[in-house]
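In the lab's daily routine, each protein ends up as an entry in a very long ledger. A line of letters takes care of the sequence, but it says nothing directly about the fold. The fold becomes a row of whole numbers, each drawn from a learned catalogue of backbone shapes. The protein below has been through that process, and both of its lines are reproduced in full:
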Amino acid sequence: MKISSINWGDDSAEKDPNLLNYFISQDAVDRLLMRQKNLVIGRKGAGKSAVRKKLSDTFSSRQNHYVLNISPKFQSIKTILNDKELTSGLGDEILFTHTWLRQIFLDCLCAVGHCERNRLSTESFEFARNVATQQNRTSKDIVENIADVIARIKGKVSNLGEFGINIEKELRNVADVDSLEHHFVEIANSGVQFIILIDDLDLGWNNSETANNLILGLLSATNYISSKTQNAFVCIFLREDVYSLLITKTQHSDKYRNVERIRWDKDSLIKLLSARINFNREQNREEYADDAFSAVFPLTIGTNNTDNWNFERTLSRPRELIQLSRHYSERCDSNIPDAEALKVSEIGYSEWKLDDLCTEYSNQYPGLVNIFSYWKTKFYRYKYHLKLVELEQMVIDIFIETELNEPWFNDLSRDTDIRGFLKVLYEIGFIGDFVLGGDGGSKTVYSYQGNHQPRFEEIDIHPCFRKAVGTVDRIRS
């Protein structure tokens, strides 16, 4: 098999037709299939969508199971977050709780109503069929449901506070929750299993009060549905940084701590690559390789073992290792592993990774691309290991000379908050905190590796960004 012909799969799990052929099952997936957890946490690119696809496929194959995948579009969330009525007093968590209940109940009733045309007619199944007919097989999206609820509210009051102690009763009424819930529960208790998988909530998320209430309302709605029937499983997929912020903004954080975190180590990531390599070998009618990784990658690159070298250039996520592998394989001209091709591919991969980082945090920290553009020109050929005294002057230069007018940056710049700026770089994974000495010797800790309070006495720029920003490479090969 020619290395350059390897198909590593689509970057998007939803668009990868072969994903389930080389899906790496983990204990986390088994726990989710047994419905032990209903909140999946992972960083962007950690494989949340792949897990959702696996759950959807598995549950769909089971009798009497209705699987609904709810993924709000980016523009839908932006519309919600920019709505003046929601941002000026109506966008409370309790409003979103009831609009999510309405959304989920309608989606489930539509699914049953469309598919159960010939089922024994009961009041609730007949109701579901009528809902499916009225909604034209599928219910409205979340934006339309919120608009409907707001229109009904505005017909009664100008703000939610006017409902007083009757707010929950009034919201259940305007959102038709009582009626929808009754038929939803009746159908579920008849033996129908509802599986509701909700993803892509981070699209457009900007850490505003409205954005946070939108997701907190969903979490509340999920717990409510779970309390009404055992035959409904609502599973939410959230980005880890979004979850970490949300959990500090609710008094009910204890209800949302039983989460399934998606974690990858070097062995599991190499196993992921090997599965994809063997899938390609099978497609080419070649034998299964016990050590598929070594059949494609060189054993060493410079003085490093290649598996370690590859892993160190990721933020411990599949999408990065797959991208690095793609950049490498496209440079190979034969079926022989090529260390030089891997070394050269690092440049293109590093540039991709820096662009990807700016995109990933474009809502929380807009303008990162300006900062790194300045970094690449002003600090070209700087060391990747820096001490605090060096960092302080670099950050001051960034504050003074970078053309960026964004609130988060303006606040840090105005206060000359050097540590605050370094915290941003640490949070997004661009730098790690270098810890000198101690048990096990010196080490560099990155934010994705777990809880750590950085001191920033010394830092390392992460290996995956070094080529992109033009650092001096210490290691010679």
In short: The mean pLDDT is 90.
